[in-house]
Amino acid sequence: xxxxxxxxxxxxxxxxxxxxxxxxxxxxxxxxxxxxxxxxxxxxxxxxxxxxxxxxxxxxxxxxxxxxxxxxxxxxxxxxxxxxxxxxxxxxxxxxxxxxxxxxxxxxxxxxxxxxxxxxxxxxxxxxxxxxxxxxxxxxxxxxxxxxxxxxxxxxxxxxxxxxxxxxxxxxxxxxxxxxxxxxxxxxxxxxxxxxxxxxxxxxxxxxxxxxxxxxxxxxxxxxxxxxxxxxxxxxxxxxxxxxxxxxxxxxxxxxxxxxxxxxxxxxxxxxxxxxxxxxxxxxxxxxxxxxxxxxxxxxxxxxxxxxxxxxxxxxxxxxxxxxxxxxxxxxxxxxxxxxxxxxxxxxxxxxxxxxxxxxxxxxxxxxxxxxxxxxxxxxxxxxxxxx
Length: 388
Known about the structure:
This protein is mainly beta. 1% of the residues lie in helices and 44% in strands. The longest helix has 5 residues, at 284-288. It starts with a strand and ends in a 27-residue tail after the last strand. The model has no long low-confidence stretch (mean pLDDT 89).
């Protein structure tokens, strides 16, 4: 959604302004200019508005220490999680939203948004928030983001299923008074758009899997990608009782799957704020026509959301730590094995022939720092107005 809804008002969030080297992005990042036309007659050139960089995520992508249970080890194998990050930051008057698209070497794509900026305060009572400064409070509010994810798994004819984790009660045949409760999986193919409009139920944990019925891996399993949601929150404002919420109907669903249509390019519109009661784009209509989604070109609509109760540590600005939401696109039986095994960034350590010595295999990757920034003068312009 390109505009932020503040119940009855909005500010333009379609611009990504200049990024600061060493703060907004690492000094090793490559920066790109963008042309943007938002609330202006002509396009504006935004200098250094997007950056891309490689990053050591500070956690192993995979590792294992194999003990010999006699005070030594058989081997250690591991690989650092070096990722490629594409970043831009949008500013909506007082808030800044840090958007990241992160590519991991095992085929996982991570989509993340973090919140920062300053709080707009009011003189309401403390029923709506905590006192902050100058005798005013920070009102409770919610941040929500909707992503259109156009997945094509080895073609455009795809299926969507949930892989539910359910309980089963197994009775001991020899002693019927004894039983064992365990979990198992249950695959549920979603056949229509209404079936695929999902609200998370903690009593029914599940995977969300997109797959190609005609393609299998070497184990005979359908190749697919699953959506993993790590930043969800229930929206309490009801569309049924408060008509303005029709303009953001997508907030009701953590995930919805529909057929891809040129007539449904986005879940909302910048013009929805002109009439929230009869919005130009009502996302609910994408679902209500209830079309077949089996072996069709599918789109996933993913909602990230968080409730924010401002507190004293949000002054002077909200910090990104703890305010980040993300979802992942993860290979699900898509490969025959973890594709990162083909990377030369891994390391294998085995005991050497002499006591206390080790053999280190780096697979051709040189030792030492892989990326050192050059010393260059700090530059920042900050201007953006005017035609390109």
